[in-house]
Structure formats: structure tokens, C-alpha cells
Design brief:
two-stranded antiparallel sheet, Multidrug-efflux Transporter Regulator, Chain: A, Domain 2, homodimer, DNA-binding, 7 helices, mainly alpha
Chain lengths: 138, 138
DNA sequence: CTTGACCCTGTAGTTCCTACAGGGTGCATA
DNA sequence: TATGCACCCTGTAGGAACTACAGGGTCAAG
């Protein structure tokens, strides 16, 4: 029931270097070592790393992951903090979906109207550029 | 009809340092200078920078932004090239929409399960925690 | 004519990894 | 037993895309 770093990496979809990096920055504790000085991990580390990877995959930056981890380490704490983190993140994701959806229709309109000729007729930049000729953007 | 770098930054939601950085790496041309050696921008730069920021915000790396821009800079180029590039970008945009949509439902499921109280009761932490007590993840 | 907001160049730091270099370990196989 | 070979170790450097100074000029207002 002990993993090498490579096995842990495979189990969590993490590169070995990334695991060592997480250890270096204190996101993972220093693990036990074998007689040959290999890192040795157990189920607890597997869980913690899975958590980290999943949060990263959802776009949480490492310091937020760290906050989340320290929250879960203290189970008596108020849930509102976690909720706020996720809520902010959801809002951002939704904004991006809106933008990308707009970009998608612009791109497919561009493709529909592209029948040969030169770029001068294609107007790709105009199609992609935001409607911000006169003020603020984003 | 001329902006300082600060005004351009405000208009596009870009930090001054970032604009200078884009200039340094050749994404923006070196602008005219005032008598006092201040950078002076016009509408064209505003459009170009807006485009860059939007593409960046949607997750396109600078290399791809550069490709798109260089395409539009050479207005004599064959439209088929543009078409192919736009098609690639459309595919990528669609992939990103799919990813973000999945992320959104995960996040809102997370939020739905949060009923207040302490972290011990909060499902967000658990939802993020490993679905992998006995093997591989992700 | 000075104050404060802005601009200049240049360099160094940040985040989140990723990639070596130069070497040790462990296990199977000839 | 030796010899591969895959894997592990430390340490450092690189890379993408910024971001933050330091140390200094410029400019409009009071």
C-alpha cells in the first residue's frame, strides 16, 4: 500500500516533476523515504494530490487550493469562504462561455462568407475584434 | 484622437507594463513618440490591442494571437489560408466551450450542495476530494 | 515653481510548471 | 555476477505571460 512518486503521478495524472514541485512549495508534506532514499506515499497523499489536481483542473490557482486545503484541515470552520471561492469562479467561467460563444458565431459567419479572394475581403480582424472602437472593453 | 499609454490601457483593460511588454515582443509596433518621448497611440492600436486582449482572455496563447494578427497584416494573402486558420480556431473555440461548460456544471453542482454550516457538512470539499480511494484519477 | 500624476528604460521577480544534467537504485536477464 | 534499463535523486535553468520595482524625466494645475 505504498507508492513511488511515479506511481502516484500515474494515479493522479501528475508529472513526477510537478509532485516534487508541490512538495517544494509546501503543498504536499515531505513524504517518508525508503532505504534507497525514494519517496514513499500512501493513501492520504493520493487523496490530497487528487484534490489538488482536481481543483487546479477547475482553474483554481495554487494559493486558492492552499486555502481550500487549510479549510478542509479545520472542519469546524465556516463554509461561506469555500462557497464564495467557488461562486467567484463560476461567475468567471460563465463570462468566458458567453465570450467564446460570441466568438464562435463570428468565426463561423466568417467561414460561411469566405469564398476565396484575398484577406482584404475577409475582414478577419474586424470580425474578431471586440466592439470597442470608442471606449472600454472587457 | 491620440492616447497615452495609460489611456490605451484603461480603454482596453490592460496594464501599462503589459502594453510595453507586447511592444517589446513585437506584438504591437513601436508607436510614435511625443516631443517628451511619450508613446502616442491612435484608433488602430486601440483595435489591435483590444483584439489581443480578447483573444488572450479567451485562452489563446500569444503565438496564436500573433499568427492571427500577421494574417491580417498581409492583406494580399490567399483567403484559403485564412479560412484554414479560422477553421482551426473555430475548432479550438468549440473545444473550450465544451470544457468550460463541463466546468460550469461541476461548479454549480458544488454550489447547490453547499447549505451553509461548517466545512464538515459542506459538500464542496468532498466534491473536490478524490473520487479515487482505490486507484486512478482523472 | 513645486507637487503629484503620469511617463521613460531597464531589470528582476512571480506563477506554475517543465526540462535537463549528472548521478544513484532496483530488478530482470544473459 | 554483470549489465542493462527503467526508474529515482538533487539541483538548476528555462519558458510563458506577465508584474513590480528602481531611478529617473514630463506635464498640467495650483
Amino acid at each position: 500500500m505504498a507508492f513511488t512518486i511515479g506511481e502516484l503521478g500515474k494515479a493522479t495524472g501528475t508529472k513526477v516533476e510537478t509532485i516534487r514541485y508541490y512538495e517544494r512549495i509546501g503543498l504536499l508534506a515531505k513524504p517518508e523515504r525508503t532505504s534507497g532514499n525514494y519517496r514513499s506515499y500512501g493513501k492520504a497523499e493520493l487523496g490530497r494530490l487528487s484534490f489538488i489536481r482536481r481543483a487546479r483542473d477547475l482553474g483554481f490557482p495554487l494559493d486558492q487550493v492552499r486555502a481550500l486545503l487549510s479549510l478542509s484541515d479545520d472542519r469546524t470552520r465556516d463554509c461561506a469562504t469555500v462557497d464564495a471561492l467557488a461562486r467567484d469562479h463560476l461567475a468567471e467561467v460563465e463570462r468566458k462561455i458567453v465570450d467564446l460563444t460570441a466568438l464562435r458565431s463570428e468565426l463561423s459567419a466568417l467561414l460561411d462568407s469566405c469564398e476565396g479572394g484575398t484577406v482584404g475581403d475577409c475582414r478577419i480582424i474586424e470580425a474578431l475584434a471586440p466592439p470597442a472602437t470608442s471606449g472600454e472593453t472587457l
